[in-house]
Write a structure and sequence with these properties.
Blueprint lengths: L6 E4 L11 H11 L3 E8 L13 H14 L4 E9 L5 H10 L4 E5 L2 E2 L2 E2 H11 L8 H12 L5 E2 L17 H7 L1 H14 L2 E5 L14 H9 L4 E5 L12 H10 L3 E2 L5
Parallel strand pairs: 1-2, 2-3, 3-4, 4-7, 7-8, 8-9, 9-10
Antiparallel strand pairs: 5-6
Helix pairs in contact: 5-7, 6-7, 6-8
Bound molecules: zinc ion (ZN) (2 copies).
Length: 263
């Protein structure tokens, strides 16, 4: 069913928050019957981020090149996931102009200056309603698309990952409370030709829908969106290709098709 689809979002030990070897990731892709994946290690530009200064382009690229020799049966491409923040726009642009990647994901991971997991913990501890405190998060996603620097927008409704309300925070919740920035973001994806990622990492933490949730994917289709890319956001080998078969079926049922975004 999903044998033709790459996993477009996989982290290796070149990411500060992963210890996965390239060989183990490739082994799992084979085991799952995937045709391959895209390495998208974290590249961070904010000095307060735990991953700041940890990414090394040359060794990462060389390791990927070496992997090609032992994975002739797989398509494995070299990419990155960049945390988009407007204040680092020129540094991100300079970096991307100076380095070659097959695929770059732009993701929002912050609300203003605060990293999303700590922001969510603080908001819920202090009783700040999630219905109206995440405008900055969604605006960062919109700005990522509008920057025209990325091939793909990462995990559009990512805050749900860190809420105590968990799976109650469906795509319908975000669309109800952040309708304008979300529709603006989906429209910008179509206008700029930026792929919308359907990220299945949610299924590892108890959700029955990906990032973004089904209601947002329906809105994307209603705006004229036809194609999405699949990703697992794997940080461990066993997470490559999480829930792809169930998600592919549901995407097709909802009138969306799946593309591979790399040549
Ligand atoms: Zn991310
Ligand atoms: Zn990621």
């Amino acid at each position: 069913m999903y044998g033709a689809f790459l996993d477009h979002h996989v982290h290796s030990a070149s990411s500060w928050d992963s210890e996965s070897s390239l060989e183990a990731l490739a082994g799992q892709a084979r085991h799952r019957g995937l045709p391959g994946f895209v390495l998208t290690d974290h590249v961070e530009f904010d000095p307060t981020d735990p991953g700041f200064g940890t990414y090394r382009y040359e060794p990462s690229r060389l390791a990927w090149e070496d992997l090609q020799d032992v994975t002739p049966d797989l398509k494995i491409r070299f990419g990155a996931e960049i945390t988009h923040q407007e204040k680092h726009l020129s540094a991100i642009r300079d970096f991307l102009h100076a380095h070659r990647f097959h695929w770059v994901i732009g993701s929002a991971h912050y609300v203003g200056r605060e990293e999303i997991s700590s922001f969510m913990a603080r908001a819920e501890t202090e009783g700040i309603p999630l219905e109206d405190c995440l405008g900055e998060f969604f605006k960062a996603g919109l700005r990522a698309v509008e920057s025209n620097l990325y091939d793909c927008l990462g995990h559009l409704d990512f805050p749900k990952r860190y809420s105590r309300r968990g799976p109650a925070l469906t795509g319908a919740f975000w669309l109800e409370h952040y309708r304008k920035p979300i529709l603006d973001t989906l429209t910008a994806c179509l206008d700029y030709g930026v792929f919308l990622e359907v990220n299945t990492g949610t299924y590892r933490v108890g959700f029955d829908e990906p990032y973004p949730g089904w209601a947002i994917l329906d809105a994307y289709r209603d705006l004229g969106g036809r194609e999405v890319v699949l990703s697992s956001d794997a940080h461990r080998p066993e997470d490559v290709g999480t829930a792809f078969s169930v998600v592919v079926k549901e995407l097709v049922r909802r009138g969306l098709s799946i593309r591979n975004g790399v040549a």
